[in-house]
From TrEMBL:
This is Transcriptional regulatory protein. Transmembrane segments: none annotated. Residues 128-164 form the TRASH domain. Pfam families: Arc_trans_TRASH, HTH_24. It comes from Ferroplasma acidiphilum. InterPro entries: TRASH_dom, TRASH_TR_C_prok, WH-like_DNA-bd_sf, WH_DNA-bd_sf. Gene3D superfamilies: Winged helix-like DNA-binding domain superfamily/Winged helix DNA-binding domain.
């Protein structure tokens, strides 16, 4: 149950609003409170009042982009700049920094300060896990113990299964 917030709790909360990363020692110095007292106040605030902390990303001279791996992109149409369906079924999504919110459900998240849109970028080759030749078309995929194996053709995939039947 929430109790009324006392004056020191209110002062600490105000500083946390300004900068949620502010160290306890700085809060203690600014409010002329003991560090242990500040620590106990923050613990109480976290337990009774604070639902979550948020972040503000630093601006750079280049635009800031969010790159996230997501299971689902439904409802993000306006936020997505581009996306790619990955072999594991997830999506690799590029969004503006303004799209980052606490409601965003992601597996991995990275930040990029510059996008390079260059059609002359080097192509990454995908090799067959059976014969080691370059896969030129759509790969034939086999899931083995939660690992995806890629084959250039049905023949390589079938021969792999036949030769490794005991381990699949």
């Amino acid at each position: 149950m929430h109790s009324n917030m006392n004056r020191n709790e209110s002062r600490v909360l105000k500083l946390l609003f300004e900068n949620s990363k502010m160290p306890i020692s700085e809060i203690s110095d600014r409010l002329l409170l003991n560090r242990n007292t500040v620590s106990k106040i923050i613990t109480k605030l976290n337990r009774e009042y604070i639902e979550r902390y948020t972040i503000t990303l630093k601006e750079r001279e280049n635009s800031l982009y969010i790159i996230a791996e997501m299971e689902n992109i439904d409802g993000l149409d306006d936020d997505i700049i581009e996306y790619y369906k990955m072999a594991n079924g997830n999506y690799l999504v590029v969004m503006n920094k303004d799209s980052l919110s606490g409601n965003l459900q992601y597996k991995n998240l990275n930040i990029a300060y510059k996008r390079v849109l260059n059609n002359d970028m080097e192509k990454v080759d995908l090799y067959c896990d059976y014969c080691d030749s370059i896969i030129s078309g759509k790969p034939h995929v086999l899931d083995v113990n939660h690992n995806k194996l890629y084959f250039c053709c049905d023949t390589c995939k079938s021969e792999y299964i036949q030769n490794h039947n005991a381990t699949i």
